[in-house]
């Protein structure tokens, strides 16, 4: 009998174990009411996805469960007011709270980490306890909420992949403790009074903070991609430890009168400072050495960058105030350098096309050579005209000789002899020729003989 009892007990325990295993390992489990929750109560670890039904009870309290190896989703539920668990600790996948218009109590006091924590179109709960122990979130996404505060997530020393806080018009404080952001951080569309504090952030792949009153980045050292800060009311934007930006550095439409980035050396993209109504000088960029480009538009009176060695692209400076356009030497700009100001104390042209010294020297040499060639051409033309005039004069004189029937040779009169033919003239010269004389213009030697001899000119 005892043996039968033991066998029966073993079978019951085995069946219970099988049932528990089935309950704790499922592709998707839907929680609609207390009975569904009870089935999970014995599971410390659940493998799969847990979904809160869209028509669930208003209050969902989930005891016992500690770890979800998968996702936890509560979405599109207009009944849910309370979601709590005193034991939830780790959710390896995504925690999604989406479109829960009446959620007023969110209590997860022992929650530590999740792959992604995503709030989308939810109000700020009047009771919430889920931030104090959080240590690791790979992705934090907060969209379209009425949250006023997003603070207290410890995350100290942790690395985050993505931070996205977008379109939360009542948000006033963001205070997060992560150390690195391996992909992108975007904070935009918040209250104009938003204060962004990222006190431990040392590295971000891409960082965009648009609109708010203050930005605090005391330990940020490098941004591998682009960095944008815009529409910040504070008179100071401070990143005193920043040394490198791998993309564009864009600070625009801010109220700042001071820029504190005095460790920044290299910006691979362009430095764009545009429409910062109180920013008159660049003294906060005193160590900047190499930039991909410069785009400075605003009320600048001094654009001196004492450490600047090279602008790899174009430089554009446009100021509404008096400005010396030689503050930045055009010889440092490899592209086009353009400077416009209300007035300028520089004798240099405010528009310079970035020609190197060698290029300018080549142009000067080319001009000199061209002028020399032009002068030589004029000289040759003048000599040709002079020679042509002399030849014309000689031809005219020869024409007169042929046409004139009387021509004096010495003191003797020349007469036309009937024997002349084919243009050859025969002269009779009385007396005796000198033995070795030549008639002018003739190559023949005089014939020997006495007076009356004839000499033919050919």
Automatic annotation (TrEMBL):
User: Is Transcription one of the keywords?
Assistant: no
Keyword NAD assigned to the entry: answer is no
- UniProt feature, compositional bias: Basic and acidic residues: 414-423
Residue ranges annotated as transmembrane are 359-382
Q: Which UniProt keywords apply?
A: Membrane, Signal, Transmembrane, Transmembrane helix
Highest taxon listed in the record's lineage: Eukaryota
Q: Where is the signal peptide?
A: 1-22
Q: Region annotation Disordered: residue ranges?
A: 391-458
The protein, known as: Cell wall protein Ecm33
What is the scientific name of the source organism? Rachicladosporium monterosium
Question: Gene behind this chain?
Answer: ecm33_2
